[in-house]
Specification:
alpha+beta, six-stranded antiparallel β-sheet, 6 helices, 14 strands
């Protein structure tokens, strides 16, 4: 598997460029027509075989047959996983490994995207358009422009000691902030997230794979600077599934009923970690910043 995905995977990186944040963007280069043809074929195959798969904005279809727990890997994660790979529609196993270990960014784009949609312990089928696999390259067992099927088990995601230490420091800082500012009715989640439900809704609670519409404002906890205010809902390039958001939102939104409003007090590890990012208006979020989000869960989008 390591050889299969990492060595030949370089070919896929040439034909389809993805961002380091696993944005799951639809390709808009010269391979767009092939991508449209591939996703049409995969969609027809899914429907014809009555496979209960969901479609990611990238065009990858995924069918979670066993759901694990915890947070899916980030672009910086090391993952341990098992897999079998087929040309879609074939029963011939092209390659398999019961327990491979790899940095997620060393894998082909289709595997990176698929694994980013799976909590540890999950088992899934991934249906991958050719551009997210090996594209126009002709390999010994894979013709050019082949759509692939992966049977994948995400065994574990390695959590570095430095990240665990940072999470410990983050939660201490959050608890001190909450005490100093006399914040009441705080719920302490085992993930490190702290939250207060400020208005209780009466709708359904979303799963990780529900598409949602949310309104939210994000602030840097240390100085109160607002780096985002607005709303998100499904678009052609962004599914707005709960699992598409930062880990803090995955933990928080799956505890809220539709119509609820909440304030999330977010450890940096569950947000942007040791990366410095720029929000709206050019506001810089420094690395290892604890954040505050005011969130309204408006709707589960069918």
């Amino acid at each position: 598997m390591r050889l299969f995905l990492s060595t030949f995977g370089l070919l896929a990186l040439v034909s389809v460029m993805l961002s380091s944040c696993l944005d799951n963007e639809v390709p808009v280069n010269e391979a767009e027509e092939q991508w449209k043809a591939d996703t049409t074929v995969i969609g027809a195959y899914i429907r014809a075989n009555e496979i209960p798969a969901l479609k990611d904005a990238s065009g990858i279809y995924f069918n979670i047959t066993e759901l694990g727990s915890g947070f899916p890997p980030k672009s910086t994660s090391e993952v341990r996983f098992g897999y079998k790979v087929y040309i879609m529609g074939s029963t011939v196993v092209l390659d398999e490994n019961d327990e491979a270990l790899s940095d997620i960014m060393d894998l082909i784009p289709g595997m990176r995207i698929g694994l980013s949609l799976m909590p540890p312990g999950s088992v899934a089928e991934l249906y991958v358009p050719s551009g997210y696999a090996y594209g126009t390259a002709t390999l010994p067992t894979i013709p050019a422009n082949s759509n692939l099927k992966f049977e994948v088990e995400l065994i574990s995601v390695t959590i570095p000691t430095s990240q665990l230490n940072q999470l410990g420091a983050d939660t201490v800082a959050l608890d001190e902030y909450l005490t100093t500012n006399s914040v009441e009715n705080v719920i302490k989640d085992t993930t490190g997230l702290r939250y207060v439900i400020t208005e209780e809704g009466d709708g359904a609670i979303p799963t990780l794979y529900n598409k949602v519409k949310i309104n939210y404002t994000g602030k840097i906890l240390s100085n109160g600077n607002t780096f985002f205010t607005g709303s998100n809902s499904p678009t052609p390039n962004f599914d707005s599934r709960v699992i598409n958001y930062i880990h803090a939102f995955q933990a928080g939104l799956t505890k809220l009923k539709v119509g609820s409003k909440a304030t999330l007090y977010v450890p940096s590890v569950l947000a942007f970690g040791n990366q410095s990012v720029t929000g709206n208006g050019g506001i810089t979020i420094p690395a290892n910043s604890n954040l505050l989000y005011e969130v309204e869960l408006v709707e589960i989008v069918e």
